[in-house]
User: Which sequence fits this backbone?
């Protein structure tokens, strides 16, 4: 295992220490060491924005804390939900008196812990609304969308929800904007190589050399098919077909495109995928308004990429354009 | 080879196509398809800023094109210098009538091609000044600094030179600022795993599992030693010692720190390194003014990290703070 770790059981602690040192200009750690808080949070009178999730997806979750972005983030162990207490502490740290919207991904642990945290926050007198991301097309059929997992589309949900809060939206307005954002996101992942939790020391799942897994989840959850590794343009066409067939957008719709690496894929290959992705999207009569390419939502050193297509409208487009200050270019 | 490629011989072409599609809001391709130009370049009366280098280091080189950053970038094949013609075309694209500074790395091919391009530009009546980056401490002893290679410190050289040009500096002033920046940078790389050029199909060099190579170059150039893989904090201490011993900065000096992944190292592990790095720097009586952690200068899917420490002064600090718009957060 060729990795930079100290004690494999303390990867998250060590990560957080180095993370906060790097970004102390925009964020800090709460009294609970597993809660990251934007430096200016809570903002009095503004709806607070919270998320949380397992570690190992960096900059996923905590890296999106910042000005005009997430107010507080609950940090879990590698690939595990944060505790209910951490979600609760994040909600309290984000609360500026106008309530808090918790925007998180559809995983069993997160669902359970957010529910408990919401109850605890209610006892503190904090109104909490939630939106559950379910943008991962391959994790369940369209008819069972409520079962789908949340993946990189969460970034758009966070950005739109946060922007609406910055603009003075009420709890219900912020919740509605974030819900609209995630409802208009579709994502898919393709895996070319697995990842290893340092404390385990060997991959939790396998992807045989010469093959790829289409529709793979962020923790190696099985995709819809394993097939021989194809040329990048064929992979990109498959990704677009799966995502766009699920969405059925009217011609002329403007979209934001996010091509994220899973951790160990070179940036130039994400651009190679993007070449075909943008062509395919354009062929469908859609208009690419903005593109993000890079390691935006990863899975340790997994080899692979995800595509997220976010259909914009006159409400969400200006919200997407709002300037933010977090740890990554948005 | 688990990679997203089409024709392995056309990796750079395909990368550029997807790159320009993603970032057409800030850059474009020149008539020469191997030259990337900032959308607003050339800026009349401003000194133009040019660089160039081999591909495979993304976002290295072309990703730093943009507003208040590089005006034009010559793009080479994977791990190979751009042609003299491409450097020449980049210089012409960047020229706003006040001359052009070419800020590049100390590699044989780049040295030769920039020299030829400078001569060609002189025939066009364009004044060209150059600064050659040599921040890689392990590539030659201090007494032979002129032989050292340029690595991630180039990013600071570009930012400082570009900022000085934005502020209206003359050709000589911009050259001097960029020279000061790179003179005050020291970098080191540690390799944990090699990388593979897609057209070759197997790694060009080896790093045996269980070992690491200290002082490795961006193309697998041998480091100063191969040793058993250590804990992250030991690796970080070694990196700091090598970099800071070479620099001998007075106590109280403010520094910018860049911890870059080499392509396949998870972001959380860069933060783990940063935890110890910032502690070590602080122990020396230095003050960390700003930290950058991420894949800023890579080598395809190489596993490893680089550390760059940039000593600031009253001239360079405000230049580092100037807002820019390129493809990565700076």
Assistant:
């Amino acid at each position: 295992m060729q990795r930079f770790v100290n004690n494999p059981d303390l990867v998250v602690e060590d990560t957080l220490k180095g993370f906060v040192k790097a970004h102390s200009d925009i964020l800090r750690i709460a009294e609970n060491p597993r809660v990251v808080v934007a430096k200016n949070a809570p903002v009095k009178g503004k709806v607070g924005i919270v998320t949380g999730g397992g570690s190992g997806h960096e900059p996923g979750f905590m890296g999106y804390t910042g000005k005009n972005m997430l107010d507080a983030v609950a940090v879990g162990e590698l690939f595990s939900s944060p505790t209910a207490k951490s979600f609760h502490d994040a909600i309290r740290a984000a609360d500026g008196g106008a309530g808090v919207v918790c925007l998180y991904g559809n995983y069993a642990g997160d669902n359970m812990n957010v529910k408990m945290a919401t109850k605890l926050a209610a006892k503190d007198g904090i109104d909490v609304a939630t939106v559950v991301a379910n943008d991962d097309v391959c994790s369940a059929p369209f008819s069972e969308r409520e079962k789908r997992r949340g993946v990189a589309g969460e970034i758009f949900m966070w950005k739109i929800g946060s922007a609406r809060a910055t603009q003075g939206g009420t709890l219900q307005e912020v919740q509605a904007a974030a819900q609209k954002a995630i409802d208009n996101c579709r994502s898919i992942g393709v895996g070319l190589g697995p990842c290893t939790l340092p404390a385990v020391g060997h991959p939790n799942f396998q992807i045989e050399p010469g093959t790829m897994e289409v529709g793979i989840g962020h923790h190696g959850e099985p995709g819809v098919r394993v097939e021989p590794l194809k040329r990048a343009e064929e992979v990109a066409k498959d990704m677009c077909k799966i995502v766009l067939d699920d969405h059925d957008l009217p011609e002329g719709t403007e979209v934001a495109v996010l091509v994220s690496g899973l951790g160990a894929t070179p940036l130039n290959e994400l651009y190679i995928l993007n070449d075909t992705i943008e062509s395919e999207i354009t062929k469908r009569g859609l208009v690419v308004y903005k593109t993000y390419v890079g390691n935006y939502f990863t899975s340790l050193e997994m080899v692979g990429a995800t595509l997220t297509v976010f259909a914009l409208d006159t409400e969400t487009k200006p919200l997407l354009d709002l300037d933010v200050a977090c740890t990554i270019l948005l």
About this structure: The domain at 185-319 of chain A is CATH 3.30.1180.20 (Hypothetical Protein Tm841; Chain: A;domain 3). Chain A touches chain B through 65 residues (CB under 8 Å).
